[in-house]
């Protein structure tokens, strides 16, 4: 930790630029330091190789001790963010590691804008979901908005437009109660730059396609972190590549969920899961509302529609009920997203609307559709790969209008 109190109750902030190694040596000889959270005595660790910081003298059950396990990458990043926030003109107050006694929370940073408080957490390690939800709920109940910035090196990059995200990363994502896809703010204390993952579309529960934007810290404005983007051509290319890889190597994607879907496809004599129609791979903005791979939850709906006669009517409620049965049976998994009112039903609605725009189904009236034409199940890989490109390109014509 960087902030402590001396024996007179005065705050000592090691992030202040006034502290040289010599001044810290002198301070350590003259002063006793105490933890703002548990009030026990602290040691002042003066760094030559590592950043100077405070640490507890004894092993005690203090929540602030989590900061003592922070890596040097984390500590430097926190200091970078503190100094950067102080340079932002629109911020009224910037506090480093403030202990909020009423909440029993100590965010990395606390800033105020227009009378509204924002807790900023720089998260460089995995965090238990229950612990994170508790912290989020505490901030929310106190009318403090929490903003999570991930240590960039904790996110595995596959290529220019693809990353691997863990459950912790998804918990740190920013979700929008609109049609916007999720985004993630990350910061690299080595490169001194923000790396923003915008318009994140999951292909599987871990593999995502995203638009990456890098902003050097010295050039960044705080509002730059919250910008959005549309689905880019680079994302389109990567999404089609993922579809191709799946078709060629579907055995590498084996899970219980894919196994159940594959069994049902075989039972209905519709080839195999590797030959799912291209319409089961649409990169919807709302795909994140399912943890299951895109081709699993969309694949079940495609399978359902394949069984209908052309011009046969069906309601959205029938599709809801059909997928709810699969969720209950463990065939599909939805994602619970904190602080937004959307559920996986929104993703289903979005999928049906998109299929109607692609002329697979026809919208008759509110919450009522009919099957417009048969969904083609090919057994020829090359044919399907060509169809994949065509369908994704057609989808992107309507992507800006997606509800």
UniProtKB/TrEMBL annotation:
Highest taxon listed in the record's lineage: Bacteria
Pfam family, one: CoiA_C
Residue ranges annotated for the Competence protein CoiA-like N-terminal domain, each copy included: 18-64
All copies of domain Competence protein CoiA C-terminal, residue ranges: 235-385
Record-linked InterPro entries: CoiA-like_N (IPR057253), CoiA_C (IPR057252), CoiA_nuc (IPR010330), Competence-induced_CoiA (IPR021176)
Domain Competence protein CoiA nuclease-like as annotated: residue spans: 70-229
Species this chain originates from: Bacillus weihaiensis
Stated name of the protein: Competence protein CoiA
């Amino acid at each position: 930790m960087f902030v402590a109190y001396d024996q007179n109750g005065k705050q000592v902030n090691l992030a202040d630029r006034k502290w040289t190694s010599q001044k810290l040596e002198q301070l350590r000889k003259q002063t006793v330091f105490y933890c703002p959270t548990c009030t026990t005595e602290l040691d002042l660790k003066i760094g030559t190789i590592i950043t100077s910081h405070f640490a507890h003298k004894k092993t005690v059950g203090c929540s602030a001790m989590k900061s003592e396990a922070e890596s040097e990458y984390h500590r430097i990043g926190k200091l970078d963010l503190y100094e950067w926030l102080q340079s932002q003109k629109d911020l009224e107050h910037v506090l480093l590691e403030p202990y909020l006694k009423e909440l029993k929370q100590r965010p990395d940073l606390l800033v105020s804008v227009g009378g509204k408080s924002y807790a900023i957490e720089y998260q460089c390690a995995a965090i238990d979901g229950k612990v994170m939800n508790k912290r989020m709920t505490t901030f929310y109940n106190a009318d403090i908005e929490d903003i999570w910035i991930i240590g960039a090196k904790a996110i595995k990059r596959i290529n220019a437009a693809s990353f691997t995200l863990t459950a912790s990363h998804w918990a740190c994502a920013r979700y929008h109660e609109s049609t916007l896809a999720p985004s993630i703010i990350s910061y690299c204390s080595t490169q001194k730059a923000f790396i923003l993952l915008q318009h994140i579309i999951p292909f599987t529960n871990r593999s995502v396609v995203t638009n990456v934007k890098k902003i050097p810290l010295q050039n960044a404005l705080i509002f730059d972190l919250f910008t959005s983007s549309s689905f880019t051509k680079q994302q389109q290319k990567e999404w089609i590549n993922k579809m191709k890889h799946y078709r060629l190597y579907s055995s590498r994607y084996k899970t219980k969920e894919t196994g159940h879907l594959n069994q049902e496809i075989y039972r209905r004599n519709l080839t195999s899961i590797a030959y799912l129609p291209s319409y089961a791979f649409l990169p919807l903005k709302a795909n994140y509302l399912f943890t299951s791979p895109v081709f699993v939850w969309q694949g079940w709906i495609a399978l359902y529609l394949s069984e209908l006669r052309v011009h046969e009517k069906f309601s959205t409620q029938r599709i809801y009920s059909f997928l709810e049965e699969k969720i209950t049976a463990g065939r599909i998994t939805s994602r619970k997203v904190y602080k937004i009112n959307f559920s996986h039903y929104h993703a289903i609605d979005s999928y049906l609307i998109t299929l109607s725009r692609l002329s697979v189904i026809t919208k008759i009236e509110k919450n009522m559709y009919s099957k417009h034409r048969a969904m083609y199940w090919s057994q020829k890989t090359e044919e399907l790969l060509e169809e994949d490109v065509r369908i994704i390109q057609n989808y992107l014509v309507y992507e800006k209008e997606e509800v």
